[in-house]
Amino acid sequence: MDKCSISELNFGTNYKIDCIRDGDVAWTENIDNLVVNTGLEYAMGCVFGTTQRKDLMLGICLDSSVSPTDTAESHQFVEFLGTTNNSRPKTEFSDGGLVGDKYTYVAPDTQVMITAAGTITGVFMTDWEPKGEDKGMLYGVASFSASKAVIPGDALLITVTVSAKG
After folding, report:
1. Nearest-CA neighbor of 141 among 40, 48, 30, 59?
2. Quick one: DSSP state of residue 26?
3. Which end of the chain has a smaller Cβ tally under 10 Å, C or N?
4. How many degrees, rounded to 5, is the angle at CA 64 between CA 60 and CA 67?
5. For residue 85, how many other CB atoms are within 10 A of its CB?
């Protein structure tokens, strides 16, 4: 039997965010995520342990500072609450298959409707549904390349692609 030459298993998350304003794309951001330690523990537990798969929700950040040691209860980012629902929108992942040398799962066009003007700086993924609450498991946080203005009536369409590469 040949020896495996894979030295690492790399988990990644990419967010593509389109801000739709008056029927046009006002801006687009395409960013990669820092999977925090609790997110890595969750992913490894689902694959190799006994961790149950959880639904993951998206949150929007006013300040997206992040450290690998951040958790849902203790983190550096600040959540933007100027959206229509009391709950964070749920991601609906489906098998994206092998893309290049990465295996992917994709959650297309998760929608967030903006109700308050503000400046946002990133997104995060958690298993806790009520927005503004610091509970549950934090998967990761992604910072935009530059802050983005949002106004009431904007719709954010967010596509999340998670991947693993050996």
Report:
1. 59
2. E
3. N
4. 130
5. 12
pLDDT of residue 42: 92
pLDDT digits 0-9 by tens, 119-128: 999 999 999 9
Q: Where are the beta strands (DSSP E) in 33-93?
A: 34-35, 57-63, 78-79
Length of the chain: 166
Q: Where does residue 66 fall: left (phi above 0), alpha (psi -120 to 50 degrees), or beta otherwise?
A: beta
Instruction: Report which of 138, 151, 164, 150 is spatially closest to residue 58, judged by C-alpha positions.
Output: 138
The C-alpha atoms of residue 110 and residue 39 are separated, in whole angstroms, by 20
CA distance 120 to 83: 12
Gap between the Cα atoms of 90 and 8, Å rounded? 30
Q: How far apart are CA 143 and CA 162, in angstroms?
A: 16
**What DSSP assignment string belongs to 131-158?**
TT---S-EEEEEEEEEEEEE-TT-EEEE
Q: What is the pLDDT of residue 1?
A: 47
